[in-house]
Task: structure prediction
Amino acid sequence: MADAKVIPFDDDRSRGAAQRSPRRRSSPRRKGDAAAVSEVKTLPGRQREDARGAEPAAGPPEPARRPQEEPRGGGLDRRVAGGLAFLRRRLTGEYEVDDFGYDEELTDQVLMSLLRPFYEKYFRVEVKGVENIPAEGGALIVANHSGTLPLDGLMMQVAVHDNHPQGRHLRLLAADLVFMLPVVNELARKAGHTLACAEDAERLLERGELVGVMPEGFKGIGKPFSERYKLQRFGRGGFVSTALRAGAPIVPCSIVGAEEIYPMIGNAKTLARVLGIPYFPLTPTFPWLGPLGALPLPTKWTIQFGEPIPTDGYPLEAADDPMLMFNLTDQVREQIQHSLYKLLVQRRSVFF
Amino acid sequence: MGEVVLVTGVARQLGGRFVRRVQRDPEVDRVIAVDAVPPEHHLGGADFVRADIRQPAIAKILAEYGVDTVVHMDVTATALGSGSRGSVKETNVIGTMQLLGACQKSPTVKRLVVKSSTSVYGSAPKDPAVFTETTVPKSLPSGGFAKDTVEVEGYVRGFARRRPDVAVCVLRFANILGPTADSPLAEYFSLPVLPTVFGYDPRLQFVHEDDAVEVLRLASHEPRRGTLNSGTFNIAGDGLLLLSQCSRRLGRPTVPVLLPAVTWVGSALRTVGMTDFSPEQLRLLTHGRVVATRQMRETLGFEPKYTTAEAFADFVRSRGPGLLPPGALAGAVDRIAALPFAGGNRCAN
Result:
């Protein structure tokens, strides 16, 4: 039941929703929204099915729909036709993929729809300051990283796409571990992620893409629960020199709520070394409850995008000035840490 | 007095095509085609000289004909006919050394063009998504054809240092596809069912063989105004295709195989003699490889006629339909769309 009308969480959000509805109409999955949702209660769920059914395995879900189609068939028809056109394109391979393996169609129609229930219902993400993301051109969104599994990055991706008036796509930079794991690497590439290295980031920024990076890396995501919301070292600040070279503004982003999804109370280091992963989390439920323990806690999230820090005023050689790099890195880090504390003070409870 | 062009590796389809094409250029006087085995295709009016480039005899040929342009195309992944991997490696590496040695001695050679491959970059998950000519690969290829190309390029760089008066052009081709292409990847795509690595969907780039011949021609003549044709260039068609897209466009079903079992399946297929799954090809089919072609456009001044997708489409046309032809699948979907309950009666799109 993911795509029921979004309950506006605050001013920002409702404004974003109002602005994005005309754009959304272009996507087949949503085609019936305006007309159908108010009366036909089962539709939102069916839309989800439709998106999933687009993968070759699932059969066409049309027959069951027939009774509901009669009163206002036009919208549904168009959606079904859109779904079939999508299926046809997928089956014949006639879709476009960019240099990084980003499959925009698959991301919009399938992957985003799979993440949206988590985004809207499970973590109830509240987004603030989306107007700080530029409407066009390259920009580097720098966020804190937490939560044992990188769900915060994925939620940030949905947050940017669903709230930004232009529906911009966030291109995340991911750790090399992501690209070594089977299945994960395939999905990550198709969702527009690429390896966190200066070459890829620069290439994306040059093309005017919105790039998301979490410079804390494994230090941030795998830190113990007791250190929650304490920002770790921001790598070597490579992201700043990349942004400087591309002249792209840096948008600091603070994510609250992701720290508590898997409270990591221990780290089985030996096991992690055997498995070749940076840490093996022990939470109150994992691995004791098995797969059930791997379910994240349903915390309430807030994602806030801060004032952009311009980088185009610096001379060309500034990107190689270590002092400037450290200063800018600190500035970004301070800004994120500061708004994290502010958001934490405003937060009523972890879960509501 | 026109150019005298010596071409190695003419027994291959691509070499033969290049020889036939380059003879028609007005600035070319004479073409000497060299290979260890006589080609099955005709070579137009070129002089075929049967010589093994692993032997010092090649120096005599250079001197005898007064060759001024050498196009080295005998760096290949697979043996022609029934050669072993060992002899292929020897031709690639020792052959290149002999040829370069001969070129170094020759006072007439002015230009050297080497057909290399983008496999010099290897493929690893830690590499950047797009390779430029200057990218240093994170893990160098450990063996096979990829290592040969790395070594060949090393010797070519050494030659360029010792003979700065010779214009040296190294062309790193992405996978060459086309109606007559006989590369290992073309063989792979001709399998009725494509084994793939489970959980990986590599990004692939192709060059059409027409474009490959054109760019070799461009590199073997004097540079056009405003361009430079010495140096190292990536050659690939625009855009890319995922392996899953390729299989769907080909209409050949895929069988995902778990990575640990892949080598085993590969050697089984090799034993049956269906295809040669070399380790570097496996890595290509696991992690994929995409190269930047800005240098090719801006410095070399070459615009490929075919994009990656068009080159692949041309290859598909030449191979005939697979088990799951895309046209039939699309037709099936259209039939579902035309069923009355699917709303096709009211909505034609």
Chain A touches chain B through 46 residues (CB under 8 Å). The mean pLDDT of chain A is 82. Residues 104-261+296-346 of chain A form a domain with the Glycerol-3-phosphate (1)-acyltransferase fold (CATH 3.40.1130.10).
